[in-house]
Amino acid sequence: MDKHEKLIDLISEFDHAMLVTRSASGTLGSRPMAVAQMEDDGDLWFVTDRNSGKVADLMLDDDVAVTMQGSNKFVSLSGKAHAVDDQAKIDELWNEAWKVWFPEGKSSPSLVLLRVEPTRGEYWDNSGASGLKYLVKAGKAYLQGERPEKDASINASVSM
């Protein structure tokens, strides 16, 4: 599995992410988001309120970061995001649990999709056999007063 495939595979394991945007004042803001869908190329879809601060942020600066974390797996993406008004896509993605935020359902006028198109991604996967292999390397390096070598199977940067 190449680095790009590994990154896509890791992204697909996450149901939630932190979406980071830049406000008009230049500050960064992050908020948890449920992942509505991940496409095969790594594009992510989220559902939000069109009157939210994140949508206002995106109108000024569409550069975003998306981070995901599990017990021993981490992903960081950077790219572009934009609001999408597409009722057919909303119908396709609709999850009844979202009625908590959109009581009118999928036809709610405040509901809008966010599409994040990553241009770059990084991952750290310290799970399974590769994680154990890294722990052995790290322990050995610690005992020798050195830093462990970077292992491409555990950590990689990928252009999307």
UniProtKB/TrEMBL annotation:
Coiled coil: none
General stress protein FMN-binding split barrel domain sequence ranges: 2-149
Residue spans crossing the bilayer: none
Gene3D superfamilies for this protein: Electron Transport, Fmn-binding Protein, Chain A
SUPFAM superfamilies in UniProt: FMN-binding split barrel
Pfam family, any one: Pyrid_ox_like
Full protein name: General stress protein FMN-binding split barrel domain-containing protein
Organism: Novipirellula caenicola
Lineage of the species this protein comes from: Bacteria, Pseudomonadati, Planctomycetota, Planctomycetia, Pirellulales
